From TrEMBL:
Gene3D superfamilies per UniProt: 3.10.450.50
Protein name: Nuclear transport factor 2 family protein
Alphabetical list of InterPro entries matching this protein: NTF2-like_dom_sf
Cross-referenced SUPFAM superfamilies: NTF2-like
Top-level taxon: Bacteria
Species, as recorded: Variovorax beijingensis
Amino acid sequence: MTTDISFAELADRYVAAWNETDAAARRAAIARLWVPEGEHYVRTLQVKGYEALEQRVTGSHEKNVRDGGFRFVAAGDAQFLHGAVMFHWHMVPAAGGPIAALGLEFLLLAEDGRIAVDYQFILPTPTA
């Protein structure tokens, strides 16, 4: 992963995992994105490893996508710096409409380009 395009693609694959409706496909996406002992931090929540990552992503999916009618999209601003990738994402109504939530991902990558540590920051939601 040495080009801006690959980091944009990583951001797109990342948000796609949170939107994925099929549990087996979501599990496979997690394995492609994170190393086996990958870590994810958001607010006071900390998870480590595929099982915990799957529970985290599935819980968010059920709350926000399945039940909430939203979808996650990468903002198109992925940047790479010395083994880390940063990008913003938006949670938007699937049927269209204003941004309902905004976040920033800061990912530390392993040697193979998968996520070793994922810091998720929930940012203030823009007002209309």
